[in-house]
Amino acid sequence: MEQPACGAMHPRAGVPIHYSTHGTNRHERVGGNRVASYILRRLIATIPVMLLVATGVFLLLKLTPGDPAGILLGPDASEERRLELREELGLNDSIIEQYVTWLGNAAKGDLGDSIFLNQSVTSSLVERAEPTLMLTFFSTLVALVVGLPLGIYAARKRGSWFDAGAMAIAIVGISMPTFWLGLNLILIFAVKLRMLPVAGYASLSDGLWESLRYIILPAVTLGVAQAALLARMTRSMMLEVLSSDYVRTARAKGVGEYRVVMAHAFRNALMPILNVVGLTIAALLGGAVVTEQIFNIPGIGRLLIQAVGRRDVPLVQGTVLVIATVYVVVNLVVDILAAALDPRIRRG
Amino acid sequence: MHTSGSSRSLILPRKMNRRSALKGAAALGAAAGAGLPFSRLTFPAAAQEELAEGGVLKIAIVGEPPAVLDSQFSTATVTNNLSQQVFEGLFTFDAAFNPQPMLVEDYEMSDDGLTYTFKLRSGIQFHDGSEMVAEDVVASLNRWGEINGRGKLVYGRMASIEATDPQTVTMTFNEPTGVLLSFLARAEAFVMPAAIAEAAGTDQLGEDQFIGTGPFRFVEHQVDQYLKVARFDDYTPRDEEPDGMSGRRIAYVDEIDFIPVPDESVRANGVIAGEYHFGDPLPPDFYDMIESDPSLTPIVVKPYYWYAPVFNKQQGLFTDQNMRKAVQLAFSQSEALKAGFGRDELIRADPSVCGEETAWYSTAGADAYDQPDPEQAQALLQEAGYNGETIRWITTHEYAYNFKIADFVKQQLEGIGMTVELVVSDWATVVQNRSDPEAYEIFLTGFSQYAHPATQPFNDAAWPGFWESEAKDQAISDMMAASDDESLKSAIDAYTETLWEEMPLVKVGDNFVLRAHRNEMKGFDNFPDWFFWNVGLE
Questions:
Q1: Model ipTM?
Q2: What's the whole-model pTM score?
């Protein structure tokens, strides 16, 4: 029997043996230690990454013209008052002085205060976390519920009308600009049919249904493009796996088609799909700027884009730092999940 | 040429009482009947209609207000408008932009015009239950004089301010300051408890410091989500009929939720779909849709803003007055206005610094407005020795009108042989660069049409554009001092003539903002600075 591309086969049912993870032995304990040390190494490696990100953003913002004092004081403010406020806010200190102060405070966990919002950066971010998490969760749910079955079934029915139709729809889904889709969904479901709110956000504390009413349209807006991407990705991976030797062997042994597709092919196609989903989630947690803006969701993305427009440097710095951390952590989680799924990774 | 647009009083009578206020309201009613240019003028409605009490008003606003409710700290329009729901000052404006008493019961000005004595209304409560006294007024105005541009101007002329007794405030000036009441009528000159004013100093007020005397009290603020105010049950309204922002104020609704909605299409869709009762400002593209919807009332806000390319007069080509005049003659201002804003309902070609709805309207010396003369412009260029040097016009796509007008005028200037480069960036960059005289020759921005002309930011020689002029300074000084209608009118005419003679900027024209409210919202008075007392829900 030909060795399968993704690992040894179970001798009886053609199941790749790397899914048998129960039971412990010395080999797995060593593997576990390796994973722990790998996680630790990855976490340590994030420090210079974040330092670089923070420095880059700080310099970029400082080199970009724009005065937060002028924006805060409004159009009728006198030049004298603007200059006074710049002094009060420490904006006249040298760039190095400002950077060192910020870095020193950040190292102590203090991200400073937003110039415009008159509250700490940490509070601003904490307030925005729930809307962004909700949007991420539900748009990913839309993507998974729509994208995965579509991709799997299209692969299973390769060359059929369903396959061609599903992939054509997927191309449209990927190509459709988010703002265009969002505005049209608002027009149809909120303005014309009055089924859902135009925009805004209701917290979970206002009740699950109330919260869902507000999140449905933005989640669909974001989820459509992800679902389309996922459908194409899943189809492509499934086609590759379905043509592999161990699937043919499983079929030859009389394993049912459903089990062949779901237990053998899909699980092996999962790894790259997991990577795509992980990266998408990381990007969404960093804020879906356009969607949050169109649907007036007070999330991280809207916070960041407004802070850039207002040249609110401490807020931009803090937000970017948190987004960078989210990226690193999500990537790490994806890698750990990958290790759990693939013994070659787990065993180093 | 017509030089003054209004027969209304420029200066409030020296001594104001209820009878004169009522007379003013009656005169206003007559003016409204005669067709004052407010669109769907609604201000008498509150007086005539019985409004129901209760309900929650939902108001979509342009975005998160800088400094939230502290309009002494930030001059942003949205902050100003929110602030006046909660805070009140000694005076406020009537529908013709004349100052009228608010927290003042009565006042007197000395014969030499140097001393003002303000008798405060008694029994006025702050939202924390304490009673407003003269010390609160003094402390609040001291903060205003320290951190606010207009406050600084007043305090620069002031010898002393004191609480002569718990109900009396006396201000003494080094020189006549007739403009005082107009400045005190602005929302930013609000009164708060003395302890709060002193504790805040030059810092922004914190949310626990939003304690005013207004018909609504501050309840809660969730950044980027909402700002809630609720009816202040112990509010004591004035007796006079409502007139603009003056007169009787009654909070009919239980609560108002101000919701920041930065995307203007979402604001408009939200009003159409019934999620917000009122939205401001709305995109002009929605005008027809709103007008054809029987459940909505479109509102065109007159006066609002006017727009002008401003020249860098500190260095470079436009230090020469002939160059500035050449630009003005090179293009049609009304066509540039149309190019920038489109709809006829939302624009007005007019040369005055203040709208014709105000008492400060003047077109003195503005004969050249909208009279393009390319040949004369070319002659002026020649006289100035212009030799094809590049003119850098800093502009932005962030506000569509800004780029559209710049692009239109660029083509006209090129038509008379000028070389113009549009330097496009985001608005924050334009704001930064316009303060740097090395960075540009022209930028374009907007100015309030209903602000006292002495308070226009471009009057300040340190403000971008850097207009230094003895004639201008003299005219402003005269405006600040004027304590009767005639001298104020004469000073405003002199100021306007100087503006057209020295041409620090070229007024393109007026643009009016579009708002809309749902028809279940009753009693709304169309005033540039919106307010929601005397407004009820059906």
A1: 0.78
A2: 0.83
